[in-house]
Amino acid sequence: MNQLLGTLVVDTEEGYRLSPFGFRLFARLSAGLSDPDPGIEAVALPGRCPECGADLRAAAEGNQFQLVCADGHTLNEGLLGTPRVVADRSPETAAETLALVNTQATQLGVSGICPSCYGRTTGGIERVDGFGYRYRAPCSDCGNRFATTVGDCVGTHPEVMSFLAERGIDARSEATWTLPFRLPDSETVVSEEPLWLRVTVGEEFEESLDPMPDRSSSVVSIEGRPSLTPAASVHSATDHSPLSLPDRDVRP
What we know:
- The protein has 4 helices and 14 strands.
- The chain is of the alpha+beta class and about 250 residues long.
- The chain has a 4-stranded antiparallel beta sheet with strand order 3-4-5-6. A 3-stranded antiparallel beta sheet has the order 7-8-9.
């Protein structure tokens, strides 16, 4: 018991109790989330493989999912959401659930919140061989190694979400892998020192938006949408303080 005190167990006037961390761990174990289920079938997902155009699916690997295509390309080795998430759901609902879980978890991760234990994280953008630039934010509380694309860092910016909403895309629930700008290695380098990257949002539309994050993943400027605003300069503190945008015309 002494080995558990201070981590999984706390000593109170009423006796020993699980600590907050111990409770979260016990809840996962009691729910069976740590037991791999080999019987979970692959879940068909929206979107196409950027390498070959094949259909996408979430394939169970141990106790987690991998984002793969029908021709064997692996896009993501660790989709968030255990096989339990899709149990007893229709294929359509399972796909929607996985998309929502991953979209919301990504928003937490790039906002400095661990999507696993909700502890505070500090991350940054770094170069990764074979993947371009990636945003990494490991959690010192639970050990979660959150990492995502540069496009995901700008995908939850209010200006980007507004741009997509005007074109019928709800960025709050849209599967991140269906949006080209959120895929790996979709950024271009504006400056290496200091590091500024450009992500083009909406190349498939007549207009596009170009958010530029720095090494901390904060958006430092936005260009594009000439019919609304020629250039919007955005400055953000690294502590994720709210971003302010200049007044702009609103499309009726």
